[in-house]
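Quick check before the chapter quiz. The format below is the same one you will see on the exam, so make sure you can read both the input and the output lines.
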Amino acid sequence: MRDVLFRSFITFLFMMNSYGASLTLSHERGTIFIDEIKGWELSKDIFGMPFMYFSPKEFGQRSNISFAHTGEDFKFDKKAMKKNENQYRAGKIKWAKKVGASILKVSPYKTMKNNKGHLVHNIGVEYKFKKKHYVERSYYIECKNKMLFSKSLRLKQSGRHKRSFDKIIENINCD
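Here is the expected output.
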């Protein structure tokens, strides 16, 4: 029993050390709060996104997740999901042909409620580009009737970064 408690305590300390504080991302349209991850770097106004959070290099590349508080009123239309999925798929296929990538898988919309009580809708794609396997996910977060948009990109083999993205989305909040 003592060993189990000790291992649980060590796991808790590791999690607190890795995901201790939160970052405040303020923009004219609103404020987003995300978990801070030790060793990651936040950039502003890059690649057309107000905020991008970059991992340390792994397998020669940095994973990233972007954030935008759109300020737009938002209520996800479940009836339009299938149409939106089809448009997303068609857009990704068109993009892949243009850049020389190959689509491996398009994941359908999934909806979940995060730890802050916000509905999170996400859709994703896996593709190969220059012999590397990428995973991209787009998130539409209903936060106080406003839409937050986030997109993550990583190499398939960067499973640790997937867990970091999941943790961020599970705890994302807004003002």
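If your answer matched, good. The first helix runs from residue 2 to 18.
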